[in-house]
Design brief:
heterodimer, A: 77 residues, alpha+beta, 6-stranded antiparallel beta sheet, 2 helices, globular, B: 748 residues, alpha/beta, 59% helix
């Protein structure tokens, strides 16, 4: 399986979280917000100017900038 | 300590939860309209407290403290740090809580349990309110609350706060918990082995033990949770505030060496905590939640979102909405405004009728009633703007606005999260500046905070409305659809925001260079705004505005009155006024005689005011403000409005009320301004002067409360001084440019 990130999802596509890269406060924040390995994420849409991106994760809608979405490794489902 | 006989003291109960879980609704439902809004001393994080209408056998009364909505207790932002301090009893104004209510969103249990797992570490008696219970079915979910309560070891109550379901159960469960906390040794809290921290790496727990002993030996005992925060969170984070200065450098040293030691033991800070907590959560929710439909249905909220965040439609809707809001403020506010100004005049006339002319009557009528009344008139507009903000926030649109604006804002060194503070600043910069504390990144926060006072706050409206109604023609253009007055008001509203764009860019480029920030934000589902929540917010803002009118503006009005009244001798004027009033009371009064008295009174008044302290200051300041098209009176009024912008209206009201130029048919301040003249008879005010004054006020920093708030939020005098200097320079330059352009345009 080729490793992709949340940033690679198109509108309406799903992915399963493998891992959050890095070991810093940003990584901890992403985990706190529910981006836990094993959860399924759907890309809902993007803001009018292409960034940030809206995702559906653990039952709520989360907005991430593309640079943050790149930190979350997923596999397609 | 907790077992002391305590029926003589009130119990403190803290309410905490993730944002968008219905915490405000639960707070209102538990306390009714009893809430008091205040600030935690030294940190300006707003907090609400209220006495619960509940009789408790073990405590005198129950105080409920509403903590800021937060996803975790890691002390990364000021909000979170405050929550930890309140829960640990370190906040001077709040007693250590006797119990905690944690509100969880039942439809999003796992993420919400993260905060609970941290709160439980504090080992306080805890009650879980499982909110949004009514929405579980719609989401295709089933939840076994009994099982959850058993696996957590905590009392769980199901609620739907917005529908007032389960409130009585929360109250009775809370009473039981408080009684138990007071009577038993265990206080009904979990054993340490049942907490998520039990699964932290052994090396980490040992380090915490060591530090706990060390802090105790230093005479500064900290709770285990606080020590864990020190070790896990960034060193610049707020957890250091609780440490006394005398040992702070030693603490920093110890924390650094402990972290190094832990790194060699393979403990990866900060991620091990998040992993351990989610491990704990996974175990607790086994068999508790059942999702019937695994597939996500497209919800109504998503369908709305598709339109409202659409590339073109979304932006169009956003602009149309902002325009609609500002238009309706001018439309709806006029009726109550007329009422208030009529009321003020009526009160003034009543007082005049009851007293003989003299200094006291002048103080009451010209100073206090004219000054405070001129400001209170704008209450309806402020209430309407805050109403719209509260509705947008409560229905979930505000976070979409942030989402859409993020790219643009980040180009200016801010983030989408800056949108709400800036939008609030259109009502008042103070809540706006305080709202910047939700922005974690320091650069984003500082840039937002420094440009927030440029947004056209409601204190500027009095100035705009006065100038526009007096000097901008009442015409409609474009086929009668757009009024010129409305368009000028709208332009004034925008000018600060437009100037803020290059200012923000310069600040980002030269003052706060640094790495880009993050934008991790929940987009809550759209919902109908709750009437109670909206009403509460508007009411709080209105009260604080009235409090300002009653204190700051009252005092300034009196001072300005005194400066304009003294040191002249008013005995001649008082005699003349008494004669005139006697004349007017006579039904057979001679018209010509009344006229003569009136003009003599006006002459006396204007002589007296030009010889007063204020008049002298005016002569001194005139050369400085002449390039802006102002006379000394305007200059003085601007100086006197340093405490707050809207004071200029009160000051002008006082100056012209004292200074004459008005007769009995006067229609108030606007009329007085139109009839004011230079010594050579030319009118002082024209459209160019009015625009120059408006632009000055659009850009200046004439607001002590704002400057003090910046001082408190940045903990340094540097930034308020910086704000004042840069904004005043901009204001003077802007006013000069506009005055000269307008003069050229009106009279080439």
């Amino acid at each position: 399986m080729v490793s992709i990130t949340l940033n690679d999802l198109q509108e309406g596509q799903y992915g399963t979280i493998l891992d959050v890269e890095g070991n810093d406060a940003l990584a901890a924040r992403l985990l706190e917000m529910g981006l836990i390995p094993g959860e399924v994420v759907e890309m809902i849409g993007q803001a009018p100017m292409g960034d940030p991106v809206e995702f559906s994760v653990v039952g709520y809608r989360l907005s991430l900038r593309r640079i943050e979405a790149r930190r979350v490794r997923i596999e397609r489902t | 300590m907790a077992n002391r006989a305590s029926s003589d003291r009130p119990a403190t109960v803290a309410l905490i939860g993730n944002p968008n879980t219905g915490k405000s609704s639960l707070f209102n439902a538990l306390c009714g309209g009893q809430a008091r809004v205040g600030n935690y001393p030294g940190v300006t994080v707003e907090h609400k407290t209220a006495r619960m209408p509940l009789a408790c056998s073990t405590f005198k009364s129950i105080e409920l403290v509403d903590l800021p909505g937060t996803y975790s207790l890691s002390a990364r932002s000021a909000d979170e740090a405050v929550s930890v301090e309140v829960l640990c009893g370190e906040m001077p104004s709040v007693a250590k809580p006797d119990a905690v209510i944690v509100i969880l969103d039942a439809t999003n249990l796992e993420r919400n349990l993260y905060l609970l797992s941290q709160v439980l570490e504090l080992q306080l008696p805890t009650l879980v309110a499982l909110n949004m219970w009514d929405r579980l079915g719609k989401e295709g979910m089933k939840l076994d609350a009994q099982k959850l309560s058993e696996s957590l070891g905590v009392r769980v109550v199901c609620t739907s706060a917005s529908k007032r379901f389960g409130i009585a159960e929360v109250q009775s469960a809370l009473l039981e918990i408080l009684e138990k906390a007071n009577s038993t040794d265990s206080r009904g809290v979990l054993e340490r082995s049942a907490l998520a921290s039990a699964s932290f790496p052994k090396a980490f727990l040992e380090s915490v033990d060591e530090l706990e002993d060390w802090f105790g030996a230093q005479g500064c005992p900290l709770e285990r949770f606080q020590i864990e925060r020190l070790l896990i969170d960034d060193s610049q984070a707020h957890s250091y505030r609780v440490i006394p200065k005398r040992i702070s450098s030693e603490v920093a040293q110890r924390i650094a060496t402990t972290r190094e030691h832990l790194a060699t033991q393979g403990v990866s800070i900060p991620l091990f905590e998040t992993r351990a907590r989610y491990g704990w959560i996974k175990q607790r929710v086994v068999g508790v939640v059942e999702r019937q439909v695994r597939e996500r249905r497209v919800s109504t909220s998503d369908r709305i979102d598709r339109w409202l965040t659409h590339r073109w439609m979304g932006l169009l809707f956003f602009i149309a909405l902002m325009f609609l809001i500002f238009q309706s403020i001018t439309a709806f506010a006029s009726w109550p405004m007329d009422g208030i100004s009529f009321g003020t005049q009526w009160v003034g006339q009543r007082v005049e009728g009851m007293m003989a002319p003299g200094p006291l009557r002048s103080l009451l009528v010209d100073g206090i009633i004219a000054g405070v009344g001129a400001v209170l008139v704008f209450l309806p507009q402020i209430a309407i703007l805050f109403f719209f903000i509260a509705v947008l926030e409560d229905c979930g649109y505000m976070s979409r606005a942030a989402f859409m604006m993020d790219k643009f804002m980040s180009a200016l060194g801010m983030s989408g999260k800056s949108f709400l503070p800036l939008m609030s600043s259109f009502a008042c910069a103070i809540p706006g500046i305080m709202a910047t504390r939700t922005i974690e990144n320091r650069r984003d926060r500082m840039v937002t905070l420094l440009i927030a006072p440029l947004m056209s706050c409601s204190a500027r409206w009095p100035v705009y409305v006065l100038m526009v109604s007096a000097f901008v023609p009442k015409q409609a253009v474009l086929g009668g659809w757009v009024s010129v007055q409305g368009a000028v008001l709208f332009a004034m509203m925008c000018i600060g925001a437009l100037v803020a764009i290059p200012v923000a860019w310069l600040l980002k480029r030269f003052v706060f260079p640094g790495a880009p920030s993050t934008f991790i934000m929940e987009l809550s589902s759209y919902k109908w705004p709750s009437f109670r929540v909206v009403a509460m917010r508007v009411w709080e803002r209105v009260l604080s505005f009235i409090a300002r009118a009653g204190s700051l503006i009252f005092v300034t009005s009196v001072l300005v009155w005194a400066a304009a009244y003294f040191p002249g001798d008013h005995s001649l004027l008082d005699q003349a006024t008494a004669r005139l009033e006697a004349e007017q009371a006579d039904p057979n009064a001679d018209e010509a005689k009344t006229q003569a008295w009136t003009s003599q009174i006006n002459q006396l008044k204007s002589d007296l005011i030009s010889k007063s302290y204020l008049g002298m200051a005016g002569q001194w300041i005139e050369p400085i403000v002449r390039p802006l098209g102002w006379d000394g009176k305007i200059g003085v009024a601007v100086l006197a409005s340093f405490p707050a912008r809207e004071v200029i209206v009160a000051t002008l009201g006082t100056i012209y009320s004292l200074g004459g130029g008005q007769d009995e048919t006067s229609q108030g301040l606007a009329e007085n301004l139109r009839s004011a003249t230079w010594p050579d008879g030319r009118p002082v005010y024209n459209l160019a002067t009015a625009c120059s004054i408006m632009v000055f006020f659009a850009l200046c920093a004439q607001c002590v409360s704002t400057l003090v708030t910046i001082r408190r939020e940045t903990n340094s005098w540097r930034w308020p001084i910086f704000s004042f200097v840069y904004m005043t320079t901009l204001a003077y330059l802007g006013a000069w440019i506009v005055y000269n352009l307008m003069r050229f345009w009106l009279d080439p």
